[in-house]
Amino acid sequence: MARKRRSTDRKRQKQRAPGRATREAIDRMTWEGITRDEAAKAAGILPKSLYNSLRRPHVKRYYAEQVEALRTSGRARRIHRLEQLAEQNDNKAAAVNAIAALERLDEAAEASALGRPSAGFVIMVIDAAGERRELAPRDVGNVVGNKPPALEHAPHKRFLHE
């Protein structure tokens, strides 16, 4: 008699993890700040092999986890550095910018703690080749050359004065 396979069997399967050399290279890239090629050579693999590995979902997931751990571990140090900049008197502009950055951090932390989405919008640009690109509001001027785009059209015959 054949054993029935439960749908939870798949959920119990262990998620794939990157191999030893790939993990070592990713850890070196993340924690030592070296380039991908240098990390691959230090881990004893070819740079192309690491490049190809980073295209796989389980390797991307591991890399993203490491980068997030780095970001989280440096957050307290960055806040202390901003506090130092805000309290110094040598460079007033740096102090003002540090205070503004700290205020933005406070607002973002409060919004995420309350589960509120942060305000904003996304502009999706699709070029003639069909390539999609998301733009932040600060990038819009760069795309259109800091001028409003010109609309090319022929005037309607009703508006032609002859």
Structural description of this entry:
The protein is mainly alpha-helical and 162 residues long. The protein has a domain at 16-113. The chain is 56% helix and 5% strand. The chain has seven helices and two strands. The protein has helices at 8-12, 20-32, 36-43, 47-53, 57-87, 92-113, 140-143; strands at 123-126, 132-135. It has a two-stranded antiparallel ribbon with strand order 1-2. α2 (20-32) packs across α3 (36-43), α2 (20-32) runs parallel beside α5 (57-87) and α3 (36-43) packs across α4. The radius of gyration is 25 Å and the shape is flat.
Short note summarizing the structure:
The chain is mainly alpha-helical. The protein is 56% helix and 5% strand. The protein has seven helices and two strands.
For this entry, give a set of tags:
162 residues; mainly alpha; two-stranded antiparallel ribbon; 2 strands; flat
**Strand runs, count:** 2
Return the average pLDDT rounded to an integer: 78
Radius of gyration: 25 Å
Order of helices and strands: HHHHHHEEH
Cα-to-Cα separation, first versus last residue: 92 Å
Quaternary assembly: single chain
Detail the topology: elements first, then pairings.
Blueprint: H1 8-12, H2 20-32, H3 36-43, H4 47-53, H5 57-87, H6 92-113, E1 123-126, E2 132-135, H7 140-143
Antiparallel strand pairs: 1-2
Helix pairs in contact: 2-3, 2-5, 3-4, 5-6
